[in-house]
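At this stage, I needed to go through a protein sequence along with its fold in token form, as given directly below:
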Amino acid sequence: MTSMTNDSWATLLSGRNGLRSIALAGGVSVHAINVYLVTTILPSVVQDIGGLEYYAWNMTLFVMASILGSALSPKFIQSFGLRNAFIIAMVVFMVGTACCAIAPSMLAMLVGRTIQGLGGGFLLGLSYSAVRIVFEKALWPRAMVLISSMWGIATLIGPTIGGIFAQSGHWRLAFWSVIPVVLLLMLLVCTQIEPAQSGGEKNVKVPAGKIAVLGLSVFLLSYASLSDQWTINALGLAAALVLTLLVGRADNGSTANLLPHGTYRFGGTLAVHYLCVAFLSLAIAIEIFIPYFLQTIHEQRPLVAGYFMASLSFGWTTGSFISAGRSPKATQRYVQFGPLVSALALILLAVLMPLDLKQYVGGAYWLLVPLVCVGGGIGVCWSHLLTRVFHAAPAGQENIASAAIITVQLYALALGGALAGMLTNLSGFVSPGGAVGAKSASAVLFLVMSTGPFLATWLIYSKRKVSRNTVE
């Protein structure tokens, strides 16, 4: 490890550190860009190869595979070393991307998306874990900021690449364009990361069984969503909830646990804030449908529709900056009212999206207001919720607590995607389909998904009320 003299940006971004920074930030960026790229081109994909009823599965399977990949990354580092682990992750990601590019049907596309998600999850976990392995401790905070910022950059690059290829009628080239970038990153990894670097972990335990059961719960809900009978949908939802509860019961007190000890104490701080993370993540699950609704209902071009979708992430980033560094009293207000803003914005989307907005000045651009507010409401409270998780984590469980945030977020996003697929399919997304089906599906989706942020608001209010009464 190279010796550092200070913790400045210049030190992080110069010389060999700079090349390593590009490699790690690139690992996150190819995963993040791919998320927005695929969401943008997906309406063009279903027009070409069909499979509208499996629309939401593209996100659901990708995210669940990402959870597995992220959870396995520490074991890969221990078993193969950091360099080889990165190479394996990149090969898996490229194989999945190539499968998507040549997919003749939606089922083949879903296989590719699952492989892609596994490789992307590896890359996410490895990139974050590698920070403390390849850099001096003084550079860790800046390196984490650099890597995390790639999600913001992805909201600009992903829709641009996807929109350009979709509008030109060559959506498959959008996937092929990613592979040369991954190959360049692989070259950086091979030349800048030492083969023996492993982080020093011994006997890393991976709760693979519990993750597999969570994956099964998402699959059952997704499979049930294909039916037009509400009884089968209800059974799928009930099965998913039961399996989730069983995993929680098995995880409580386990040595290879997903969530830190104390999480499962009813009404506890960790339980409340992890639930808030899950409920707010449900609101994000609407993202995958935004481009389709805009193209089908409001006749927007793929590039424009992609940027509409990215405006949710823009609102999130803006909200994070607005609430950063505020007083404890102001922070409490952000945490209390941020989820409420998101919930009300989703209800506004449910009203506006089905309307013919061309008759009004500004047309479909009025939709940017609730989209930015959905993201902004989450952004102003998100970092503060995570900070509270860190503070509430038991001694010795801090790393598990931070890793669990990603697990909870991604699982809720996968479950939310499956639920969104069920809601849209039941409300006309596939039959009658077209603009008529999209209008009814959008109203139902946004209205039901608003319950997530509403529940987060209620949890935070109840927790604060209990804490105040306890003090008094």
